[in-house]
Backbone:
C-alpha cells in the first residue's frame, strides 16, 4: 500500500530534441501543473549530446522537482506518459529522437520494480545529462539504493558526454 510519508518530493527529467525543444519542455512543465502536480523547482536548461547510436539532433534537458501534494508514484508515471502522448511523443525507435521524454527519476525514498515503473530510475546514476540538472536543483538529495548524494553521483559518473547550460 502507498504511504504518503515516504515521499514529499519527486524528481522528473525532461528532454526534447525535435521541433521547438525549449517550447516542448515548457509545455511539458505546464502539462505537469495542469495534471495537478505541484512543480516546486526547475533546473536550468542544458544542451546535451545524444547518447544513442542513431544520428539525431542535440537534446535540451532539465529536471523538475515536484511535491506536496504528491499523487501515488504510479499516478505520477501515468500522468507523465499522458503528457508525452499529448505532446506528440512516439516510440517507433528505441533511443530515437523525440518531441518530449519525461522520466520519473526518484520519488522520495521509494523503490519500485514493476513492468510499469522502476524507482529509482535504473540509469539515473549513469547519465550526466540527468545528474547535472539534478545536482543544480537538489545536490544533497540521497539516492535511496546507492546511498550517495546527487553531487557525489555526478563526481563519480563515467559518462563524459557534453552537457552545458543552454543559452537561447
Residues:
Amino acid at each position: 500500500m502507498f504511504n504518503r510519508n515516504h515521499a514529499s518530493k519527486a524528481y522528473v527529467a525532461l528532454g526534447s530534441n525535435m521541433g521547438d525543444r525549449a517550447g516542448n519542455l515548457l509545455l511539458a512543465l505546464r502539462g505537469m501543473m495542469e495534471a495537478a502536480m505541484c512543480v516546486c523547482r526547475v533546473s536550468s536548461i542544458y544542451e546535451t549530446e545524444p547518447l544513442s547510436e542513431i544520428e539525431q539532433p542535440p537534446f535540451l534537458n532539465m529536471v523538475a522537482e515536484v511535491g506536496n501534494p504528491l499523487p501515488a508514484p504510479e499516478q505520477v508515471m501515468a500522468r507523465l506518459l499522458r503528457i508525452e502522448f499529448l505532446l506528440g511523443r512516439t516510440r517507433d525507435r528505441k533511443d530515437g529522437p523525440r518531441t518530449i521524454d519525461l522520466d520519473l527519476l526518484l520519488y522520495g525514498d521509494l523503490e519500485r520494480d514493476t513492468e510499469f515503473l522502476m524507482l529509482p530510475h535504473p540509469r539515473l546514476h549513469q547519465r550526466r545529462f540527468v545528474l547535472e540538472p539534478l545536482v543544480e536543483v537538489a545536490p544533497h538529495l540521497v539516492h535511496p539504493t546507492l546511498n550517495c548524494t546527487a553531487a557525489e553521483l555526478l563526481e563519480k559518473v563515467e559518462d563524459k558526454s557534453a552537457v552545458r547550460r543552454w543559452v537561447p
User: Anything to note?
Assistant: The domain at 4-159 is CATH 3.30.70.560 (Alpha-Beta Plaits).
